[in-house]
Amino acid sequence: MKRQLIAAVGVAAMVVGLAACGSDAKKDDTKTGSSTAADGKKDYSGKTLKVWLMSGSAPKGWEDSVKTEFESKYAGSKVEFQVQEWTGIGPKVTAALSEGSVDVLEVGNTQTAGYAATGGLLDITKDKAAIGGADWAANQSESAILDGKQYAAPWYVTNRVVAYNKDLWAKAGLTATPKTLDEFYAALDKLKATPGVADPLYMPGQEWYVYFGLLTTEGGKLAKKDGDKWVGGLSSPEAQKAFETYKTIQGKSVTGAKDKDEAKPQQKDVFGKGDVGSIIGLGWELPDEKAIPKDKIGFFPLPGKTADKPSGVFLGGSNLAIAQASKNSEMAKDFLAVALNDKNEGLVAAAGLIPNKKALNDKVVGDFATAAKDAAVVGGITPTTPNWAAVENEPNPIKEFLTNALTGDYAAAAKKADDEIAKRLNAKQ
Amino acid sequence: MRRSLIGRTWPNVIAVVLFVFFVFPVYWMIVTAFKPDKDIVSKTPVFLPLNATFDHFKTAIDAPKFWTYTANSFIVTILAVLLSLVIATLAAFAIARMKFRGRKGFVLVVMAAQMAPWEVMTIAVYLISRDNEMLNSLVPLTAFYMMMVLPFTIFTLRGFIAAVPKELEESAMVDGCTRTQAFVKVIFPLLAPGLMSTSLFGFITAWNEFPLVLILNKTEGQTLPLWLSSFQTNFGTDWGATMAASTLFALPVLILFVFLQRKAVGGLTDGAVKG
Amino acid sequence: MAVHSERVQTQSPASGKAAVATTETSAHRGGGAGTPKKSARPADGPSFGSRFAPYLLLLPATVATLALLGWPLLKTVLVSFQNLNARQLVQHLTEWNGFENYTEQLSDPEFWSVAGRSVAFTALNVFLIMVGGSLVGLLLNRLGKKMRLLLSIGLLLAWAMPVVAATTVYTWLFETRFGVVNWFLDTLGWHSMATFNWTGSQYSTFFVILLLLVWGSIPFVAFNMYAALTTIPKELYEAARMDGAGAVKIFTSVVFPNLKPFFLATTFLEVIWIFKAFTQIYAIKAGGPDGLTRTLPIHAFLEGTGRQHYGTGSAIAVLTILMLGALMAYYFRIILKQEDEL
User: Fold this and answer.
1) How many C-beta neighbours within 10 Å does residue B50 have?
2) Does the structure show a pLDDT above 90 at C14?
3) Residue B5 has what pLDDT?
4) How close is the nearest chain B Cα to the Cα of A23, in Å?
5) ipTM of model
6) Chain C contact for B112 (CB, 8 A cutoff)
7) Contact B230 A85 (CB under 8 A)
């Protein structure tokens, strides 16, 4: 019996020991947190700024450039970049904002209003000028404005263009890139008849960003505010007209499944096989150099109905925001000023993304970026409203609407999606 | 004679079919991991990795903080398993061999605890951890993982202890052993398979856990499932790297299984001989 | 059930050690130093230590369970009565809203269809797993040494596959364009399957999930069954044989009763595991297409964490726990009855 007793006591002691470990960790945490009381105005020595970036987002060399510049400008300070994965990012960011465990974070432009409404983002309206906000591109900056207040700084946007396999297009006898949708369709038909082309255009049915662009062209909206209630906009005549175009384009795709999005399978892999004529995608959805050499891929904006204007695009992008709970908010503002200065935004432009200032647009280089820049003029973003992020949550009703409308009745699919969009947008905060 | 021949052939045929059924996904994972991209997305599947490449493994290992994740995973998993074994053995012995008031209630709690849907309780766990400043630490993670496997471990060990014929223990006690000695000398050796199988279960559960670590440890103390999921970004799946990462992720578990399973079987026969 | 278990109990002393069995009662009560036999109360042992020994042994487990499970559970219940969304979470606000989350769910037809689907899904899956697993277990027992090793390796690999990895592999196997399953079906002559989209419809998606779960769960049941078969003490077979029992009689009087507790426990675990299955269902199609493969845990996650309506999610979680409890009530009764026989 005695030994049993001893064993039981031993385990109890272990449990107590563990609890002690727990409080040690606690002490450490508060230590890093409390050592932030600022005495000198610009003295950030000994302080570490935690910056969250999304996986695959920052252009090459950007992090190093910003870190070096900031740390040499403010001697003794430290910038720590943490790359976050996309999986479950929404709850993760909310949680981080509630803890104050992050100082500066990258937020998607369609999500910014949502995070701002939680009270988790710092209002930087007053600091806008100091950060360099005087000449931010209006169509980028507006995504970060809620109720007239600026909650984030625009970082960059990018948009989809048509990427095509030059060899296959040449083989099909196509010499010029199409200027109108009709020319585009004709080119795809020609490609389809060309031996060695498995698919003239790989496009899965749930490419809702493409649909969004077409909807913008028609002057439609995914959702509108009616009084103080949101209503879905997919049942509108504009939406249906946009969908007809979408359906025609998607119909040209031989292998694109009607219920898949651009992520599964990766367009990069499909296009990289070498027997796909074209895709509609972003700069980082291009195949590796090994699969198709860079100079074998050409780009053009998705044409419009007439030659004067390309089809609309979705301006996907990222903003940089400061957490309300950050204990280093002054440091964070100075960080934004460095991170978004012309030199570092130039790196963004050089990577083929569209920078936050029109003045830097001439720094945008590369075939992709040139095509993207042309289309960006007719770009738009989703409604700037706190609940918009909820609409994009999986299962995304717009994606399901596209599948349902492609395979069945438009009106029913649109109604179902509109109801869901309205439900999510009108949900209580 | 004829009956026994059929009786011998059919089970073997079925066994081979079942073997293929169970092994193929694992095989396919490993083969894909070694295939160059061109072979992965080819119309006719390539069944043998003749152009084997280590590129995908390199991509997987070169991912940021891979080694930190690995170390964290091992620390958390091993600690959680060991702790649960110690705590569970004590409890299992009590409920398998002792009579006391409240025993039934405890058994009921253990069974109910097995039903705990941890995935939907993450937010509660998060709020508790946040409000007690226990985030980004391996300690709460270990504790919760321990708890996830504890009920099963108690339940299973209890079964193993109960399965040891009481007479064995009692004859040892007749021979002059104390109850504790009887436990150590008689029950414990027979418990080996139980300890093995429960630690395997515990290892797998803790090794795999994803939703909790995702929300609890965002900046530090991350584990391998997070790393594995990083290959499925918003822009799709890099199948080669994903399969390479899956292979690496599965490897420790596979090794442990082969190792422990042999021991477990050994323990089983040992027990039989001694019994 | 109770009848069978009693037979196990009465049989084991009969297996040849009656002399030992008589000392059982006194030995059981702490050292056997002249304890009065009549005592039915458990806690009347002679020494203070042995009286509290069981409680001390249970103490760590109890403390851990209360702190690490009881507390989160309580918190879940509390949150289920709150309006807790992203804003409240970020600003650390507590807004009680009574039964609102519950009435919202209980009056939502989707909740009920998800609940019904969960039960049907669990029943079908567990049935397949238990039947399949038992047959494989029996097969293992019957095979020769080499074949048993081969099949064991196969089962072991499937079992050892971490769920996260296995699910990823299945997504890859059933991939529309480059998946090996579609290629195989096409090669067999079923050409319409060449680019079949497995996650396009409810049933084909469920098929993949089902296969994944069955594939991953059978090894546990099979090994358990096999282990149960081998742990039956040899004396029992011998005793039965000496009594002149044939193969059938041995199965019904020795194997079956000995196996039944294992079988019961395994079914119990499988019901819980399948009902709670999350990673497999979520990773295959996140409850899609059109929410048609949502089960309760997925529903709770998507409505709660996914949409950051944590109060709603917690209410669904509580309802899930209650439902699982109701499903399990039968098992609880059986197992508690067994406790009486110890």
Assistant:
1) 9
2) no
3) 56
4) 8
5) 0.82
6) yes
7) yes
